[in-house]
Amino acid sequence: DKVLAELIEPYELRAAKLLEFLQDVQPSLRYDIVPLADPYGPSVTDPDLQCLVVSEETRKGGEAVNKRRLENGLPELALYEILLMKDPDHSQNEEEKISSSSLRQRLLGTLLRPPRQDPALPSHPYVIGLTGGTGSGKTSIARLLGHLGAFIIDADKLGHTVYSSGGPAYEQVVATFGAEILNQDGTINRRVLGAKVFGNQEKLKSLTDIVWPEIAQMVKEQIKEAAARGNRWLSMTTQSPLS
């Protein structure tokens, strides 16, 4: 449940960086770094521990540790409370303390690693995919990229096109889900279709198995169009074939 958990570095890398820092601070001490698979770790079972460093935010956690130690027949640990360091550069939307969550937020928009070169893909146009739920900012980012010269492909609109009357997926969608999904004019009622598939994984897969390959084909055609027009890069946004 961490903020931007996908940007958290692997445990092994974080442990190595921590050890390097601790050895720089005091190389003569022995450090034992262990992963925490639960809120307590070895603090409630190790009889050799004498002190637990806490902050004003985690003091209650330290008290919970001592309660568990007493239940396990171990002596309480001395709780040494440290002050939280304030971050003078924090923004209005970030925490006042120095926080890894704030640091991860600042990584947004940063290239974390060089783009991987895939010999099977043409060098141009360079394709950027935008995905996310409603309100996540896809439209705003696509508009910004468009102002910068990107060729925009809206996969949501393509999704509507493929099962519109005469679209490549229309007949198969109607055959699969029945004439009750049709409006009086013969067009597919997306709300009725959505009520059939959302909440039913099997029916939703049936729909996506029909629609997504057709969308993918239309995307490929638009990428070829962008390349023919000389566009060096393009942006593609997607959410759901029924959004």
TrEMBL record:
<protein>
    <submittedName>
        <fullName>COASY synthase</fullName>
    </submittedName>
</protein>
<keyword id="KW-0067">ATP-binding</keyword>
<dbReference type="Pfam" id="PF01121">
    <property type="entry name" value="CoaE"/>
</dbReference>
<dbReference type="InterPro" id="IPR027417">
    <property type="entry name" value="P-loop_NTPase"/>
</dbReference>
<dbReference type="GO" id="GO:0004140">
    <property type="term" value="F:dephospho-CoA kinase activity"/>
</dbReference>
<dbReference type="InterPro" id="IPR014729">
    <property type="entry name" value="Rossmann-like_a/b/a_fold"/>
</dbReference>
<dbReference type="GO" id="GO:0005524">
    <property type="term" value="F:ATP binding"/>
</dbReference>
<dbReference type="InterPro" id="IPR001977">
    <property type="entry name" value="Depp_CoAkinase"/>
</dbReference>
<keyword id="KW-0547">Nucleotide-binding</keyword>
<dbReference type="GO" id="GO:0015937">
    <property type="term" value="P:coenzyme A biosynthetic process"/>
</dbReference>
